[in-house]
Design a protein that fits this description.
This protein has 271 residues and is an alpha/beta fold. It is 43% helix and 15% strand. The radius of gyration is 17 Å and the shape is globular.
Length: 271
């Protein structure tokens, strides 16, 4: 088992304070990622334009790959959600994600649906929200498949979304969608809040698991909290996971130290 390691980079100033290790300066972030030995970056971009030629040149210059592209700017900047009560808003959310899928596919990378799941409540029941989400994921996964990439769904803790909270919720959604181009992203921070058994949840996900984000229980870099990463790694080995392992943590105590601590921990976990 030899996963590739990525580090998160945000180009969305409005998301300041979020769990991204590097911020703002793409070239400097890629240079530091390369110097520390990362294989790629996971990018939180404000729009598909940020995934264009400048990114391609930057990645090539530093010998890096794009591990994945977040779609959360659709929520942060435009308050779009795939489970909104208004159908036109749901369609706008879907089109924003589709544009990120298109742009990320140029780099052979998947798009990630996290915060754009939205929430259920009020005029939208949980069953309705799951129906809206399944319809959107089916459409977007088929589109991603035509471009030769995957679409990743990330369950979030209850304080960020109440639609998909566990990997089990994600598995049920993927079974409903029935498209092999839709996969799961497992974030250890969210799992630490919602899962009864982190290792068991990963084993149950099996081949549906396409991407892993590691941060500790306090959202600091892996190794700075109380998460049992040994059990996580054992489960990943058992399911023969070979995808990306990404550092999505707050930049504590600073970006450089967080990036260095993350990859040191990753190398110790995956020798």
């Amino acid at each position: 088992m030899t996963p590739r390691f990525a580090v998160t980079v945000s180009l969305v100033p409005e998301a300041n304070g979020g769990p991204f290790i590097f911020w703002g300066d793409l070239d400097a972030s890629c240079r530091r990622a390369r110097d520390l030995g990362y294989d790629g970056i996971e990018l939180f971009a404000p729009s598909p334009a940020a995934l264009g030629d400048d990114l391609a040149r930057c990645l090539a210059r530093h010998g890096l790959k794009l591990a994945g592209a977040g779609t959360g700017a659709g929520w942060v900047l435009h308050k779009l959600s795939l489970t909104a009560p208004d159908r036109e808003e749901r369609l706008r959310a879907r089109e924003f994600i589709r544009s990120i899928v298109d742009a990320a596919a140029r780099h052979g990378a998947p798009a990630i649906i996290g915060s754009m799941q939205g929430r259920w409540g009020g005029a939208v029941t949980r069953d309705a929200a799951l129906g809206f989400l399944a319809e959107a994921v089916a459409d977007l996964a088929a589109h991603a498949g035509r471009l030769g990439v995957a679409l990743l769904v990330e369950p979030l803790n209850r304080y960020e979304s109440n639609v998909l909270s566990t990997l089990g919720d994600g598995i049920k959604l993927l079974e409903r969608v029935g498209d092999p181009h839709a996969g799961l992203l497992a974030d250890a921070f969210h799992m630490n809040i919602e899962e009864q058994d982190l290792a068991g949840a990963l084993r149950a996900a099996g081949p549906r698991l396409r991407h892993v984000q590691l941060a500790d229980s306090n959202r600091r870099p892996a190794g700075c909290g109380h998460t049992d990463f040994g059990a996580i790694v054992t489960a990943l080995r058992e399911i023969r996971y070979e995808g990306w392992v990404s550092a999505e943590a707050v930049p504590w105590p600073d970006p450089d130290a967080a990036a260095r601590r993350s990859i040191q921990t990753f190398r110790s976990l995956f020798p």
